[in-house]
């Protein structure tokens, strides 16, 4: 769903392991890495969108994770080169609700090839703050905001 300002509703997922490292996935066929994320369907609840994306991109089910927190407000980023107000279906960027999740399953439950149309072709665990400077430039600010807003929830049981 794209709002009147050209932002597509989206969820972002920060998945922690037991050592408070985060999942870092390489986009299929590219040399860029990112957190799992995806669009919200019309009339789909935000948490339902997150669980669907988690399954589509990582092959995980609700029993594999614990939800620790989510951002209270939308976080925005623009996608360079897409904005065109003259096009009635213009797309400016994403507005995201970010979720902080704890993996309570095992690493082998993560399967980036679970679905035919996979988003990632490789993954690894990285330091919590690592992604801020490593993600594509136009997403760095939103990653910084999401990681800082959710950091205090890491040690929740």
Structure overview:
The protein has 157 residues and is an alpha+beta fold. The protein is 18% helix and 31% strand. It is built from 3 helices and 8 strands; from the N terminus they run ββββαββββαα. The chain has helices at 46-58, 131-134, 140-150, and strands at residues 7-16, 22-27, 33-34, 37-39, 65-70, 75-78, 93-103, 120-126. The strands form 2 sheets. Strands 1, 4, 5, 6 and 7 form a 5-stranded mixed sheet that branches. It has a 3-stranded antiparallel sheet with strand order 3-2-8, with no helix packed on it. The chain is globular, with a radius of gyration of 15 Å.
Helix-strand pattern: EEEEHEEEEHH
What is the alpha-carbon Rg in Å?
A: 15 Å
| Biggest sheet details | 5 strands, mixed
Portion of residues in helices?
10-25%
Number of strands: 8
H/I helix tally: 3
Mean pLDDT: 92
**Which spans of ≥5 residues are poorly predicted at pLDDT below 50?**
none
Principal-axis shape: globular
What is the terminal-to-terminal distance? Answer: 34 Å
As a percent range, the share of strand residues is 25-35%
- Class inferred from helices and paired strands: alpha+beta
């Amino acid at each position: 769903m794209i709002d009147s300002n050209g932002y597509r509703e989206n969820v972002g997922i920060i998945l922690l392991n037991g050592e408070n490292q985060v999942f870092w996935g390489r986009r299929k066929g590219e040399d860029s890495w990112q957190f799992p994320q995806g669009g919200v369907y019309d009339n789909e609840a935000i948490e339902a969108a997150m669980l669907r994306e988690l399954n589509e991109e990582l092959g995980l089910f609700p029993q594999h994770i614990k939800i620790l927190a989510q951002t209270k407000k939308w976080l925005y980023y623009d996608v360079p080169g897409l904005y065109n107000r003259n096009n009635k279906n213009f797309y400016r960027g994403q507005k995201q609700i970010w979720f902080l999740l704890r993996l309570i399953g095992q690493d082998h439950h993560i399967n980036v090839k679970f679905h035919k149309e996979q988003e990632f072709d490789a993954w690894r665990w990285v330091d919590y703050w690592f992604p801020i400077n490593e993600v594509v430039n136009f997403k760095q600010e939103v990653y910084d905001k999401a990681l800082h807003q959710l950091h205090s929830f890491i040690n929740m049981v």
